[in-house]
Specification:
Layout: E1 10-14, H1 18-24, H2 29-50, E2 54-61, H3 69-92, E3 96-100, H4 108-121, E4 128-135, H5 137-153, H6 165-171, E5 186-189, E6 208-211, H7 221-232
Helix pairs in contact: 1-2, 2-3, 3-4, 5-6
Length: 242
């Protein structure tokens, strides 16, 4: 049974397996992405009910642009569909939406919906739902270093400043601009793959990992709770000893 007093503060999920889910059923890839969106909707609700404070989902990576134009375009149409269908309920449930990544380069109709979701939920105080969109962790770190450099040049930071882990963290997408999101306690990847795929490389230094063979569209709140329960059975020492 899940211990409600030991719920991870921040859960991050690599939502993998939409394409394979569709292929197994003889369906087009977009059917898998659509089913994956419905699964994501349920996991957002489950996170809120369980008391998770931050949920981050890997929705579209910087490498995903290599996919077919049809698939990429379809994914951003789903972003529009998701905001149109779910924003009112997210707002009603006090969920705050944040975007991690360079989202302004995606199609304008999707940018408009994303910015509407940011504006509508900006004062909410419940679950913070972070959507990693056009996100890549290496690009995020490079961006942080370049922004530190710019702030030294414009005088916002002193030229003799010592660059620390804290300063770099502040300049990441998870830093000052999005409310200083704590590092994920638990990272989940679906579909049987066991790699990070350029996701939260800096932030995952002491995260716990759970991998499941379940394809993302089949990932239920029950499976989610099972993985959280497994996480709760671990002894997190952060490099120390008891």
């Amino acid at each position: 049974m899940i211990d409600k007093n030991r719920i991870p503060t921040h859960v991050a999920i690599i939502m993998d397996g939409n394409g394979r889910w569709a292929a197994k059923r003889g369906l087009p890839k977009m059917a898998g992405h659509n089913a994956g969106m419905l699964a994501m909707k349920e996991i957002v609700k489950a996170s809120d009910i369980l008391g998770v404070k931050y949920l981050t989902v890997y929705a579209f990576s910087t490498e995903n642009w290599k996919r077919s134009q049809e698939e990429v375009g379809g994914i951003f149409k789903l972003v529009v569909k998701y905001v149109d269908s779910e924003l009112a309920e997210l707002h009603q449930n006090n969920v705050k939406v944040k975007i991690l990544g360079d989202y302004k380069v995606v199609p304008k109709v999707a940018v408009d919906r994303l910015e509407k979701s940011l504006e509508t939920t900006q004062n909410n105080t419940g679950l913070q739902f972070n959507i990693a969109l056009n996100y890549g962790s290496r690009a995020e770190i490079v961006r942080a270093v370049n922004n530190i450099k710019k702030d030294v040049e414009n005088g916002s930071l002193t030229t003799d400043i010592e660059i620390t882990e804290e300063i770099i963290s502040r300049y990441l997408y998870t830093g000052d601009e999005n409310g200083n999101i704590p590092d994920p306690d638990l990272i989940i990847r679906t579909s049987g793959e066991e790699r990070l795929s350029n996701f939260m490389l800096w932030q995952s230094a002491y995260s716990e990992f759970e991998f499941t063979d379940v394809l993302w569209p089949d990932f239920t709140p029950q499976e989610y709770e099972k993985l959280i329960e497994q996480y709760q059975n671990r002894d997190r020492r952060f490099g120390g000893r008891k």
